[in-house]
Amino acid sequence: MILESLRTSILAAMVLAVGSASAQTPAPAWPAKPVRIVVPFSAGAATDLISRQLGTGLAKALGQAFVVENKPGAAAMIGSDAAARAPGDGYTLLMSGPASMVTNRFLYKKLSYDPDAFAKVAVVAITPNVLLSHPALPFKTVPEMVAYAKAHPGKLTYASFGAGTTSHMAGEMLRQQAGIDIVHVPYKGAGEAIPALLSGQVSMYFDTIMTALPQVKAGKLNALGVSSATRSAMAPEIPTIAEQGYPGYDIAPWYGIVASPGTPQPIVARLNTEINKLLQDAAFRDSLAATGAEPRGGSVADFEAFVRTEVPRTEKLVQQSGLTMQ
Questions:
Q1: How many whole angstroms separate alpha carbon 168 and alpha carbon 18?
Q2: Which of 34, 35, 161, 201 could pair covalently with 65 via S-S, beta carbons 3.0-4.6 A apart?
Q3: Rounded to a whole number, what is the distance in angstroms from the first to the last CA of the chain?
Q4: CA 253, 259, 264 angle in degrees (round to 5)?
Q5: Residue 28's pLDDT is what?
Q6: pLDDT digits (tens, 9 = 90+) for 98-151
Q7: What is the spatial order of strands in the sheet that 119-126 belongs to?
């Protein structure tokens, strides 16, 4: 009895010692290796530029490289799917936006990933689109374009940086509000759409202001209007589409960092903190402003609430347009 009791006490002490040692073992430091930011659009596009700016800032703050990996195509689904399938260990992030997080769920009968499964981190920025047109066309304002489109139904085409993207939805919103027949032509990004517009393959293109302005300032393309509710500080001379006879017209790309499903909450919280710090840094804000982007930030809960607001608005737009994708 005494020996049995002693053996039991020794075993219990050993279990407690092991448990205590495990509890005191610190979690592995993060990040301990480079982190990749998957960008579901081509290099040179607005999403790519903002991602690289953010990656540079986070690398300085966290002491590890943040490497941008471009995976364009299929309305951001290729890149989004890659990020969704990656391990939830904090080493794969996705620069998400309206297409990957909201629009695709209504355009496609079945997605290869669950938009709601991502760990939302923070909304980084928002930037307006600009409706561009080829200068050879006989219009320089939205009302003039609408009049031309009504006189020539089905003749005008508009490019976007992907089916289901904000660029595409901007055209659909204008088509509905103006009651015009214009034809959508999707591309993989600005790198393909801008040359197509310059060469006259398409009539118009909804592009982000950061990649649109160089062509406008060079006189190669006309800027008909800005897609957001207010004019852009980067080009205050360009009127909004809303103020040209379409009140309530307001649609703009946003850029939000999400992490692969299952990413631990402490890593998400650390990323949110560092991103918000960057968005308060004057130099970083200036770098965003130089590309036409307006900084956002906020908590994880703010990001989640923002998406919940976008979902019904986008669902209504897609339903009204009758758009469906395979």
A1: 59
A2: 34
A3: 74
A4: 150
A5: 67
A6: 989 999 999 888 899 999 999 999 999 998 899 999 999 999 999 999 999 999
A7: 66-70, 35-39, 92-96, 254-259, 119-126, 294-295
